[in-house]
Amino acid sequence: MRSLANVLLLSVSLIATAQVSPYNHRPAQQPDSSGHYRLVFSGHFHGSSSSSSGYPAATLLAGLDLINGLDANALVSTGDLFLNPDRDSARYHQALFQRLMPALFNAPGNHDREGHAYSGVKFPIVLTFGLDAVLLLDTEVADSDIEGAQLQALEQLATEGRWRRVFIVSHRPVWAEEDPAYGPLFKGNTRSLTGCNFRRDVLPVLERMIARTEVFWISGSMAGGAPASVFFQPHLPNLTFIQTAIRDELRDAVLVADVSGQGIAWRLVSLTGQGVQPVESYDSAWWRTAKAQGTQGFNWRLVPYLARTVITDHAFWWGAGAMFVLLLLLRALFRRWP
């Protein structure tokens, strides 16, 4: 069976021209004669970050018939499609890609970028649906900065002025990183170490774009403990910030956008049968309340498990090794100090 790396490398040119998924090799369907089309958004398809099965989330696999039944024009992943793509691609092919009906596209997350699977794939990727565009960005390649070809693509969409709507899809919610209202809601998510260029370089482009185009920025790095599968916040007229992802939990739901000449109808579709509210109700105020109510005391019984998780992670040993080398250097320096 071909590895994911080979699949992606062979298909990257198809994505840009024929809008064919590199995962399940299905084309994104264009709007019907009335102009209607349907997009499904979600992310974190590997489920929990502690999952070691190599398979997609159980809720995703259990809800696959439901997703196929939505008859979507495309399924757009907000990143972390895989936990370990080099290891898990064959399992995903058998369990998910062969059975998935809508064309699948992915804006890579931090886990997707581990290994070699995405080494030959270039972003941005632009999908078009009539007068609407879907722009997939890679926020891992420059540690949350949107620059080079990716920033140029944004500027081009803003300058052309012919787009009715633009859906920008990225794993990291770069719009939240330095925002005092949104940033605290996503503590623990993947973000830059020193800040990003969203406010300086990206937001001015968006402000030009929304003068005549409706823009939705949809991300998927929500960190553990998220109280819902969606965050939906109108930020400015014609600019809405969204987060959506699953975590292999009872609350898992996918975000559906029914687009027509009359506008967009958003809805959540639960993968587990658990009740959901209207999408628009999951705004920043709802999240602040839900996060405050969900705060729990520390469970001391978890200490052995948490300790084992830390010391068995390769990142811990890289850090410990680096600290050991630094201490040796400092020791040698102080010995030579007069």
Overview of this protein structure:
- The radius of gyration is 21 Å and the shape is globular.
- With 338 residues, the protein is of the alpha/beta class.
- It folds into two domains: 4-293, Metallo-dependent phosphatases (Purple Acid Phosphatase, chain A, domain 2, 4-Layer Sandwich), CATH 3.60.21.10; 302-336.
- 40% of the residues are buried.
- 31% of the residues lie in helices and 19% in strands.
Query: How big is the Rg?
Result: 21 Å
H/E element order: HEHHEHEEEHEHEEEEEHHH
Structural class: alpha/beta
The percentage helix is: 25-40%
Which CATH top level class of the largest domain fits?
Alpha Beta
| Unreliable stretches covering 5 or more consecutive residues | 5-18
Number of helical stretches of at least 4 residues:
9
Proper CATH architecture of the largest domain = 4-Layer Sandwich
Number of domains: 2
Main beta-sheet strand count, sense and barrel state? 6 strands, mixed
Oligomer: single chain
- Share in β-strands: 15-25%
Number of strands: 11
Short summary:
By secondary structure, this protein is an alpha/beta fold.
Compile the SSE list and pairings:
Blueprint (H helix, E strand, L loop, with lengths): L3 H14 L19 E6 L15 H5 L1 H6 L4 E4 L7 H13 L6 E3 L18 E5 L2 E5 L12 H12 L4 E5 L28 H12 L4 E6 L10 E7 L2 E6 L8 E8 L2 E8 L13 H10 L9 H9 L2 H23 L2
Parallel strand pairs: 1-2, 2-3, 5-6, 6-7, 7-9
Antiparallel strand pairs: 1-10, 4-5, 8-9, 10-11
